[in-house]
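Researcher: Hi, I'm a grad student and pretty new to this. My advisor asked me to get structures for two proteins we've been looking at. I'm not sure of the right format, so I'll just paste the first sequence and hope you can take it from there.
Model: That works fine. Here's the first sequence with its structure tokens right after it:
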Amino acid sequence: MDVRAVEQLLTPEGWSLLSRMPPYDEDGALQLASGLRDRGVDPDLVAAVMTQSRLRTRARAKFGDFADEMLFTPEGLEQATRLQVAARHAQRYAAAGATVVADLGCGIGSDAMALAGLGVPVLAVEQDEVTATVAAVNLRAFDSATVRRGDALAIDLQAEGVDAVYADPARRTRSGNRVFDPRAYSPDLDTLLALRATVPALGLKVGPGIPYRALPSETHAQWVSVDGDVVEAGLWFGPLAPEGSGRSALLLGKRGTHLLSQPGDADAAATQAAAGPLGSHLYEPDGAVIRAGLVARVAEELEGTLVDPSIAYITTTAERPTPWATGFRVLDSFDFGLKRLRAYLRDRDVGRVTIKKRGTAVVPDQLRQQLGLKGSADATIVLTRLAGKQSVIVVEPLRG
């Protein structure tokens, strides 16, 4: 999307047309676009409106009903913070008493929206012209938000009266590939960490796969999952980290809000839990718990052990409710073998199988095809290692 497309959308005709668009439907999109062109609508405007309609539909997963009043770029939507997570960020700044927050590399403005929504003044800086224009549209309703196009690192934070900074560096190459090395972020992690010398209240969004060795010891690193999907990791410094240095897992979603925190050096190695024989129950820790290195903490709470020293599955001898993991009742287990597994499932009339895996190179979709099941029953299997052997654990989900 280019600047002209955004300008067309911001005309009375463009905005009115966009607001009247039905929910995006891939099957009917071509016919709808053709109908608009046949009615004399500028083909470029039609393309811009159809693109926004498609992006708004995708964006509802992150922004809910707010998406219907926003504009997006494909890249900006991909990196944008989910509204419920951005709200948690904003609460940190509000609780710290921030008077002006610089949102450096604000993207389409999702975090700035959350800050402004709490009444926290925010200076949102974005270098890309199209993205900055989109951010200005998305922040139009907030008097306490200012959008400025420019180099985020060229801002004189002291002259602007900034006393807190939030930064979400780009973590994709120009070709769209993910960047995992923090030194290859744009701006890179070390450059952003240096901002603490000017503004100690610093918050950074980083990729969930960031290694502990890349973290400063004196930071609070928090991994966030939404309905079991790990969506980000955040680094918090100074007054933005009232919990002090350490690592934590924040779980948001239909099961409520749950926080598991462990103080200490953020770059310390994760504690290793003991391994033991397979018991009557199996627990799969939430991805945020695994990323934060808190599996041993959950195993201790569950009075369980790992099924293998290197596998993040916890086994127990009894059912124990927990918000930190998904629980299963163990029905059976045996060494992995395609013929044996196929015969086992066919004997039980299984036609639909849910495949979970950890510590194995098996590709679930390929295995489903190889099994060729045609029965009427459902089954859940876990492919992992037991005592160092590739194994199958047959389970059923625990209620609740």
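Researcher: Oh nice, that was easy. Here's the second one.
Model: And its structure:
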Amino acid sequence: METSRSAPLPDRSQPSHCPLRRALLVLPLLLGTAFPLAAAETLADAWREALAVDARLHAADADTDAARATLEAARGLALPKATASASYTVLSKEPAARIGLPTLPGIALPDQLPLSERTYATHAVQATLPVYTGGRISAAVNAAGIGVRASTFERQRSEQAVKLEVAETWLDVLRSRSALAATERHLAALDAHARDVDDLHRQGVVPRTDVLSVAVARADARQQLTRARHGADLATAAYNRLLGRPLDATADLAEPPPDTAGRDDFATLAARAHQQRPELALLGARAEAGDQEAEMERAARRPQVGLSAAVLHEDNRYRVSQDIAQVVIGVQWDLFDGGIQRQRTDAATARARAARERQADSASRVELEVRHEWLAVDEAIQRLATTSTAVAQADENLRVARDRYRNGVGTHTEVLDAEALRTLTDRNHLNAHYDVHLARFRLQKAVGEL
């Protein structure tokens, strides 16, 4: 015997339009006009704050300061050096020279002549100047200058890494909050459907299994809601950490603007990446520095010429003049050192060659990375277009399923399936939306333009 169905139930998921509700909706707008709220934080704001507090960038700045100081020290090698010294000498005996004077009857003549006191103080001021070093100083200056450039490239790499991490975390916060809102909508839709099921069950129109199954679906949705809330909280904490804020600080973030940027062809992007990626420039600088280190070692095997001048004062009563000035020009040439300098030259040359090999390998890796992110942008754009249409279709499918169920021509399973499909479509759509922006940022990082 067929069970009769009652009249269609009203859609309780739709808001009523009573005057009180309309007044409540208008009131926040009026308050917002009278008391403007602070603007939501954009990604540019986040970048500015994160770059000011990030420890990696502070470390990179310290490395740059160290490289500049090293360069100034290398330049100082070509300047005169002035030193002052003092010493106090204590001898066991007074130095003396043996003299052979002829003996005279009745006269005792000394057979030694004192040369210095047993204790005396010596003071000296000396200046030295390298005249010729075989190119060692110029190579040291060049190597230090390359070190400054390398530290700049390292700083650029660190800054781009920080900016990408902040962008990813910023999008994670927005994505997790959108996912939380979608989960709340899903639970609200199940609550509305549960009320319909309860009404129909009390009328004896639907079996108790419909009530039980919707209760299970609501319980699962509440678990998903808890998970989504925790995910949004964790994403906000990670975002606050990068900006140097307390982990539980409130973060009001602005949604990214619609993606309207075009897409350059892969060859153009790859060419720009080869020119702009700081990693490649850093490896090239390391190779140049290795060449200069090898030149420094070669220069050490050439003659070294230096000029020095000094003024000495010795407190010695046996000296006719206790103040003496001297000028010395000296040449030093290591004719044989056991092959040490040659081996050091070979080692520096090998390091330069290794850096160039790594640069070539990194260039191909950069090109592959650019291609990967270039395709990721295309995929995300196509997914966004597809899911935009699917969202409207899923909403219509859910509406039809609920209408059929209320009118007794559809089943409870159809409604749950339609709601699950709508939830999945919402999730796919919001993921595609944020993946477009994420892929754009990663592509900019791959090209070296973030």
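Researcher: Is there anything I should tell my advisor about the second?
Model: You could mention this: Residues 1-18 have pLDDT under 50 and may be disordered.
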